[in-house]
Amino acid sequence: MAKRALKNKKIRLVAIGSALATGAAVVTLLPSANAAEEKTPEQIMTMCERSAVVSGEKRSVEDFGGAFADGFQADNCDFAETNFETFDGPKEKASIDFPNCEPNATDPAKVSITWKATVGQGEGKYTATQQGAGGGLFGFLSGSWLKHKGTTDLTIKSVAAGDTETREVPVGKVLHMEFTPKMQRMTGEWRVRIDADPGSFAVNPSPEQNFAAPEVIVGPVVLAGAAGAPGIADGVAKPVLTDC
């Protein structure tokens, strides 16, 4: 019986050695000791939203809809900005068509065009940062967002641009206005920390734990409104002519 057990043990050792030599998936036999500590970005975002302190602001469980017994999932969460850039957004048709397509037309047609475009303000990568979702974290992002020139509070859902212009439509053409918004993108990461626990008689000590989830926030560049009015979207409006 002892010989058979020894023989089986040798077979197992040979199998592992063979897997190492061929590059086979030994991970399934020897799982990582840190696997249990890994978190998905969505889990990290939940921990951030349920942290005792977010961006230096002390929180209560009521701030995220929790009960006293729920407690906090982490001790601290901060957003660290890594980059900020501007770029042209997608072109948008901002007016109705104005045709000059009458068979006997000989002169350009003068028209008064009123155009309007609306651009979504503040869209995050994760559900937890979306406006109105679980309390949201957009309020904490606004501090980083507002330090850049030409931005508005991320809690505003959209901004608009528009005007009324007089234009000429050549014979045989159809005119409409097109708006290209100027957009901005802020990238960074949410950094969540669970403090070290020195332990007690009944609790084992645990080291400090740190997690990070990347974030990307996109919104329009916003120009200040007149006399305290809401800001307007920055961008370029231009007429576009097509054939009848």
Q: Could you characterize the architecture of this molecule?
A:
The protein has 244 residues and is an alpha+beta fold. The chain is built from three helices and twelve strands; from the N terminus they run ααββββββαββββββ. It has helices spanning 2-22, 41-49, 138-146; strands at 51-54, 57-58, 74-88, 92-93, 98-100, 109-120, 158-169, 173-194, 209-220, 222-223, 232-233, 235-243. The relative contact order is 0.19.
Percent range of helical residues: 10-25%
H and E order: HHEEEEEEHEEEEEE
Strand content: 35-45%
Largest sheet geometry: 8 strands, mixed
> Based on DSSP secondary structure assignment, what is the total number of beta strands?
12
Helical run tally: 3
What is Rg?
A: 30 Å
Distance between the termini: 94 Å
Summarize the structure.
With 244 residues, the chain is an alpha+beta fold. Helices cover 16% and strands 40% of the residues.
Q: Which short descriptors sum up this protein?
A:
40% strand; disordered N terminus; 16% helix; 244 residues; eight-stranded mixed sheet; alpha+beta
Q: Secondary-structure blueprint of this entry?
A:
Blueprint: H1 2-22, H2 41-49, E1 51-54, E2 57-58, E3 74-88, E4 92-93, E5 98-100, E6 109-120, H3 138-146, E7 158-169, E8 173-194, E9 209-220, E10 222-223, E11 232-233, E12 235-243
Parallel strand pairs: 1-3
Antiparallel strand pairs: 1-2, 3-8, 4-8, 5-8, 6-7, 8-9, 8-12, 10-11
